C-alpha cells in the first residue's frame, strides 16, 4: 500500500499457538482458478454478489479481490478518502461497504457462481496519526493510536514511533511507521494469534485467499507464520491462496517473500504498461527473461489502485491502449493476471461514490461513476480467452519490429495486437483446428453465432485478417462456431 473487532473472546480463545516456522505448510503457488483475478476496488458487498452472478461467473472470471473488510477509520473531514479503509481499528466485519451478514452472503453467492473471494488483508499496522481524533470507526468502535480496546494495547506496537526515513535500512522499513500508521509487532505471539483469528474467521465464511497489503514492511518469517497457520478453506481441503504486495527496491526483493506464496511483480507493470503506452511491443517477445520472479510465483497487473494514483503509466483513462495492454496480460503466458474494476476519479485521494454519511453507494455499470473496466468488450472477451488457453505453451511469435505482434497458445488460442496507427493486413499461421471462430476482442459466441467479428481458419491453420489500428484479434477454442 502507498497512500499521502473487536474479536470475540471465543474466537481468540480458540486460536492455536503459532507453529514454528519449520512446521508451516507451504502456501499454494499460482492461483487455483482458471480465470483471472479482478480487484473490485471499493465495490460494496451486495453489488459484488450481483456482479458475480450476472457477469463475472458467466464470463470466466476466476476470483474477486475485495477491499479490506474489517472496521476502519472514518475520515469525514477529509471527504471519506479511499485510503481510510487501510487503517483498521478492529477486526469486526463492518466497513463502509457493508456488515458481516452482507459480506458472508456475498462470499456464498460468488462461490456458487464459480468465483472465489480473495480479501485484502491489512496486517502490518492499525490506524495512523492523521486519523487521530476522528473516531469512532466504521463499526462504532472507539480507539486511539496504539490503543484499540479489546484488540491491541500500546505494548503490541513497535517502539520506533516515527515515519520511515531511510528506505535503504531494512530494519527501519520493517519496524518504523509507514506514513504515520501504528506499526504492529508481528513477531509477537499475541499479535500473530489475533491476526490469525481474524483471517480464519474470514476463511470460515468461505474466503478462498488473501492479497496481503504492505508486505515489504513485514519480515518474511512473520508473514509466513501468520498466513501459514490458516485453516483449510471449507469444503476444499486446500489452504487459502496467498499473494503478497511487495514493491521491490534495492533493499527489499520480491524473492525474499516467495516462500510464503505468490508475489506481485511490479516490474511487469513497468515493462508492459510502458510498452503499450509507447506503442513498441516487439520487445515483449521474451518477457519472462526480463522479470525477477518465475511465472508460477508472479501476480501481474497493468494497474492497481495504487499505481492508478501514484504512477499512472496506463489506466482506464487511456482508452484502447489500456484495453489492449490488459488483453496482452490475459493472453501471454506469464504470471497470474490481476485486473481492476474501479471508480472514476480526478482527485487521487477521492473515495468511491457515497452517501452523506460516507457509506458506499451501490456499484453498477449503468452508473458512469463506476468505471467497470472488466465489462469493456476487449477485457471481458479476453477473460474467457485466458480461461480457455490455461497452460498452453507460447507458439509462433511474430512481430514487425515495433507495435504489431501475434502469437499462439498451442492449439487453444491465437492473438493479434496492432498498437500502431495503420492497418495490419496479412495471413497468420496458427495451430488452431479449422473452423469459424469469434473474435472475442469484438464480441462473443452467443446463440450459435458471433456478436462481433467472425474469422475463418483454414485446414492449414492459417487465416487472413485486416486488423485496424489500435485493435486486435483473439480466437480460442471455446468461441468456435459449431
Automatic annotation (TrEMBL):
It comes from the Bacteria. Gene3D superfamilies: Glycosidases (3.20.20.80), Golgi alpha-mannosidase II (2.60.40.1180). Residues 395-480 form the Alpha-amylase C-terminal domain. GO terms for biological process: carbohydrate metabolic process. InterPro entries: A-amylase/branching_C, A-amylase_C, Alpha_amylase, GH, GH13_cat_dom, Glyco_hydro_b. Keywords: Calcium, Carbohydrate metabolism, Glycosidase, Hydrolase, Metal-binding, Signal. Belongs to the glycosyl hydrolase 13 family. This is Alpha-amylase. It comes from Saccharopolyspora shandongensis.
Amino acid at each position: 500500500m502507498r497512500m499521502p473487532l473487536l474479536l470475540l473472546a471465543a474466537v481468540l480463545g480458540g486460536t492455536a499457538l503459532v507453529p514454528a516456522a519449520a512446521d508451516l505448510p507451504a502456501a499454494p503457488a499460482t492461483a487455483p482458478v482458471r480465470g483471472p483475478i479482478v480487484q473490485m476496488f471499493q465495490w460494496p458487498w451486495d453489488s459484488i454478489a450481483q456482479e458475480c452472478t450476472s457477469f463475472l461467473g458467466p464470463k470466466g472470471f476466476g476470483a474477486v479481490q475485495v477491499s479490506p473488510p474489517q472496521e476502519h477509520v472514518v475520515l469525514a473531514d477529509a471527504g471519506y478518502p479511499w485510503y481510510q479503509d487501510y487503517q483498521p481499528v478492529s477486526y469486526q466485519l463492518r466497513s463502509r461497504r457493508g456488515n458481516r451478514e452482507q459480506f458472508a452472503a456475498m462470499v456464498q453467492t460468488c462461490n456458487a457462481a464459480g468465483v472465489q473471494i480473495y480479501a485484502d488483508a491489512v496486517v502490518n499496522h492499525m490506524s495512523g496519526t492523521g486519523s487521530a481524533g476522528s473516531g469512532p470507526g466504521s463499526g462504532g468502535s472507539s480507539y486511539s493510536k496504539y490503543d484499540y480496546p479489546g484488540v491491541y494495547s500500546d505494548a503490541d506496537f513497535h517502539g520506533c514511533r516515527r515515519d520511515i526515513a531511510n528506505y535503504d535500512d531494512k530494519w527501519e522499513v520493517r519496524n518504523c511507521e509507514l506514513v504515520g500508521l501504528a506499526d504492529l509487532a508481528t513477531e509477537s505471539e499475541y499479535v500473530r494469534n489475533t491476526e490469525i483469528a481474524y483471517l480464519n474467521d474470514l476463511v470460515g465464511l468461505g474466503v478462498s485467499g488473501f492479497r496481503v497489503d504492505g508486505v515489504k514492511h513485514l519480515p518474511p518469517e512473520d508473514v509466513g507464520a501468520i498466513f501459514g497457520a490458516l485453516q483449510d478453506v471449507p469444503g476444499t481441503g486446500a489452504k487459502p491462496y496467498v499473494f503478497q504486495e511487495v514493491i521491490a527496491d534495492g533493499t527489499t526483493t520480491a524473492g525474499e517473500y516467495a516462500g510464503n506464496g505468490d508475489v506481485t511483480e511490479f516490474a511487469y507493470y513497468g515493462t508492459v504498461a510502458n510498452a503499450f503506452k509507447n506503442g513498441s511491443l516487439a520487445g515483449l517477445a521474451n518477457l519472462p527473461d526480463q522479470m525477477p520472479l518465475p511465472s508460477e510465483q508472479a501476480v501481474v497487473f497493468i494497474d492497481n489502485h495504487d499505481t492508478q494514483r501514484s504512477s499512472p503509466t496506463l489506466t482506464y483513462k487511456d482508452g484502447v491502449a489500456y484495453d489492449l495492454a490488459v488483453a496482452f496480460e490475459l493472453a501471454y503466458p506469464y504470471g497470474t493476471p490481476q485486473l481492476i474494476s474501479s471508480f472514476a476519479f480526478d482527485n487521487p485521494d477521492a473515495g468511491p461514490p457515497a452517501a452523506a454519511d460516507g457509506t458506499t453507494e451501490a456499484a453498477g455499470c449503468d452508473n458512469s461513476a463506476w468505471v467497470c473496466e472488466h465489462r469493456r468488450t476487449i477485457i471481458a472477451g479476453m477473460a474467457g480467452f485466458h480461461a480457455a488457453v490455461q497452460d498452453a505453451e507460447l507458439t509462433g511469435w511474430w512481430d514487425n519490429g515495433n507495435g504489431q505482434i501475434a502469437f499462439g497458445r498451442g492449439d487453444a488460442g491465437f492473438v493479434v495486437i496492432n498498437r500502431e496507427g495503420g492497418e495490419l493486413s496479412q495471413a497468420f499461421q496458427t495451430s488452431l483446428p479449422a473452423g469459424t471462430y469469434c473474435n472475442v476482442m469484438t464480441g462473443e459466441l452467443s446463440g450459435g453465432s458471433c456478436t462481433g467479428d467472425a474469422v475463418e481458419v483454414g485446414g492449414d491453420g492459417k487465416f487472413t485478417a485486416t486488423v485496424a489500428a489500435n485493435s486486435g484479434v483473439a480466437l480460442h477454442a471455446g468461441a468456435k462456431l459449431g
